[in-house]
Amino acid sequence: MVDNKKIVLHVGCGPVSELTFHPHFKRDEWREIRLDIDPDLNPDIVASLTDMRVVPSGSMDAVWSSHNVEHLFPHQVPTALREFLRVLKPGGFALITLPDLQAIAGLVVADKLDDVAYYSPGGPIAAHDMIYGWRAETQSGNDFMCHRTGFTAKTLYWALIAAGFAEVMVQRDGHYALWATAYKQRPAEPKALAGIDTEIYVPSQSEQLKTGYHLWQDQHRPTVEHKALCEQRIHSWLRSPRIHLALLVSQPNDRLLAASIGSLACQYHMPARVTVVAPFAPSAEWRDNDRLCWHVAGDDLLLEANRVLSEFDADWVGVADGGDQFAPHAFFALAEAALSHPDWRMVYSDEDRINNAGARDLPHFKPDFNPALLRSYPYVGGLSLIDQRLFRRLGGFDSRFLGVEEYDLVLRVLEQAGAAAFGHVADLLYHRLTDGGHCNLPVSALVEKGRAALAAHLERQGVGADVVHGVFPASYRVRYRVAPEVSASVLIVADSNLAHLQRCVESVLEQTAWPNYELVVLADAAAGEDVRVYVAALGGLGEPRIRAVVADEALAWSEARNRLAAESLGEFLVFLHSSCAIMQADWLEELLGRANQSGVAAVGPRLLKPDGKVHQAGAILGLDNRPVSSPFSDEALEYPGYYGRALVAQNFSALPEACLVIRHGVFAASGGFDAHFVGDLAAADLSLRLTQGVDRLEWTPFVSLLHSGQALAGNAPADWGAFYARWLSKMARDPAYNPNLSLRHGFAVETLACLSYDPYPWKPLPRVLVNPADDTGSGEYRISAPARMLNQTLQAQVITSRATLSPVEMARVAPDVIVMQRQVYEHQVDAIRRYQRYAGAFRVFELDDLITDMPAKSALRPFMPTDVGHWLKEALAICDRFVVSTDALAEAYRHLHGDIRVAPNYLEGARWKGLAPLRGAGRKPRVGWSGGNSHTGDLDVITEVVKVLADEVEWVFFGMCTDEIRPCLHEYHAGVELDDYPAKLASLNLDLALAPLEQHPFNECKSHLKLLEYGVLGYPVIATDIRPYQGDYPVTRVANHVEDWVGAIRGHLADAEQNARRGDALREHVLSRWMLEDHLDVWQAAWML
């Protein structure tokens, strides 16, 4: 009988009890797998929360954790949460509850630390118990029950986000507990599953930005490897760009100036000249400084800056304020970008703020050059460089616009050189000082100066427009004037909803103030008889501006709209969905004013839901794991968005189809809507075709339409493939977005390091994306350790991802090679198929076990798919290479792949060298074994041996033992985290180490890793005489008979000196032949480097 129940991993399960099993997991729907570190509780799996390697990746539908995570040290919490995430299937979730420290603090403030707060099944609970751990247990010496980390809703939320969960919902239960529902992938309709009716914690926009940015900073700190590769690149330049930077300083402050100069001194590529422009003479500290020049300005700081920036021979010039700082690679990144794009005349970067505490916050990850956004507010700048020849030609900065002089300069560059002259380095290179700057005018005056600069720009361009202050603070709204002769055709294709159609038509006729338009409505055979009758009636009204088209046949989505366009008479086409309704009289005038501007191909408005929230507001390519999605959906009307982008006009790469305004001739020249797509996907395809050249799309929030429609069938995943095939390269970097912003949450800082800005845009090394099956065991030895070493030795750029990436995310990474370890679940094989279809990278499948023939006693066996052989075969069929750990494994699977390579296991010197265990440390010889709970069958080999020698040796076991042999042990040590494992193994001070293996085909294919771990520590070894332990290793091999094991152990211990020599010989063997750093060529060859 097939068990179709979903599986929930109950971590830290404790004793069997219905009271500890959440009611969401109904027994007739869910199968419980119990996991606990305490073997006396008889769990299904003995393991810690921080090392669940026995549970395969992607094998669980849910993880249930009740009052466990607080028992971990703070540094262990991220590891545990990543383990929760790792074992979940793509649609899986974790349900977590733990103490609410914020609520408990109220008891402490009220001086009720030891007062009973509530009664649990185990007895009374006070604040003291919730903070430090249940005293009934901790006072008896049970350290497992101590609490080591506290959480509030905020810290729990961000801990889960940092671990990589895509959607997190945290609730406070109104008493003393937090409840979190954390999804591995963002579901269409996320739900909090705790079963409590309390408010869901929602971090503020500023908090999201701040905390997400802290995570980003942790992942983007400069490394030795990054600096080395940048320096190599500098040496390869045929000519080094000469950069002249002027630091504008209005008030004496040596401390702030020193911060700027200090950050410049750390540059990989120093500006050729740094000049301080100030209205005062330098202090003694700077008077004889050979790092910079000093120019004393008169009353006009900008006039002097113009002079010094124009006189010194340079390729690029720029300004910054004293006190501002620069990333170490700032000028290298700008110079590299300029060299790679010789058509650029101005290049700018992203920036953040140095707050009053000296920390960095408020990152501004900007879009690529966006003319409409530039006309909304001055987003270009900090840090920006301009071609010196163009700077001279423009006359430099205009002193009339002091304080917004850079905004005025950018507008003039746009006029002279065009939008294509602007380049953007999507990296955070500039750190702007809070309350810094060289102009002391109030903000209101600066905003007004900016408005004047924008108005002057429009006037110079001959654009008829009025500039007023926008809704978002310090922003502008341009009201473009429209000539009366500009005409429009409002085109509506009726669907089957008559009420929506009537509302749409009537709102157009009643609300539209612009007089020069026609209304054309089409109903085909699929619309329904009532709709067709209504449309025919419209045509019979005798109203010249209304035309009706009633088709006898059913028309395809694109065919209907293309036919309407062909029959329309207006200069502009307004495609309007029948579920829309007009809500403001100037809607058409506003849209036509923007659509009539030079270089604008199409315009779209903001669409609102019936509840007043935003439905669609422009579109970002690849957002929400879809081909295209709106970034501000479901937000309130007044929600500003990231740097106000929900409230200002801007250019997007795609616009929704519900209301799309496009010049008639442009639409005809484009070929119209493509028959392969419908709905928003068709509009996105058209949008991208329209912007292949210099034309752009514009979105405005100053027109809002009601939209009652839902996503159309064309947005179903089955229809996405053709869109990806056509546009994936464009989607990888949407110019309206930023690669440091997440595609999983609109305008959230990207916290997955593998997906944010590429530090090596010139691609100096092969780029390898690796997907380890776990963070311990085989994932460490066979994926993470080689990856680290290849990165450190500059032989490859290896990027680690534990998440399944969407096609667009994979295009962001753009790997040459993808290495996937033990991906044998159906959803994992589906992911490989997507990588095959869209990534174009060389695909390597990695395996280190004979997973199709596992021992009956293996703890891993129950978690493998029942048809694992089928899925392994499917995965290998779509991979280019198969890498295994042993010759035996290669022989066993030779029939499954034509290119199978062996890359043996090695030890990483940084982890293992320098450890020196003691010998003769016990009263009796110390004999030990190290293993995990997946080694039950192996331990059975020596169970009787342990009993026989219990009085002759001090048995030391590490990682696992059974109840049967525990009384015989001198010491038992629980498993530790991976980073602590080498030192812990060395601390056992063994005189002899045992490596038993059950005789089984699975073990015949295993590797020699245990011999290496023992050997590098100088432990003499007795091992089962089995293939992985055969060869020239200086160890003693025995058959799996009790008498052979006992005899070999006694023989070793009879001569301590000879035993020690055996350990020395094994250590030398491992150090000379089996260290990873000496064999990176093996991994290069295995991964096709």
From TrEMBL:
Residues of the Glycosyltransferase 2-like domain: 490-614
Originating species: Sulfurimicrobium lacus
Residues in Methyltransferase type domain copies: 30-96
GO molecular function, one term: S-adenosylmethionine-dependent methyltransferase activity
GO biological process: single-species biofilm formation
Phylogenetic placement of the source organism: Bacteria, Pseudomonadati, Pseudomonadota, Betaproteobacteria, Nitrosomonadales
Protein's recorded name: Glycosyltransferase 2-like domain-containing protein
Gene3D superfamilies recorded: Glycogen Phosphorylase B, Spore Coat Polysaccharide Biosynthesis Protein SpsA, Chain A, Vaccinia Virus protein VP39
Entry superkingdom: Bacteria
Pfam family, one: Methyltransf_11
InterPro entries assigned to the protein according to its UniProt record, in alphabetical order: Glyco_trans_2-like, Glycosyltransf_2, Methyltransf_11, Nucleotide-diphossugar_trans, SAM-dependent_MTases_sf
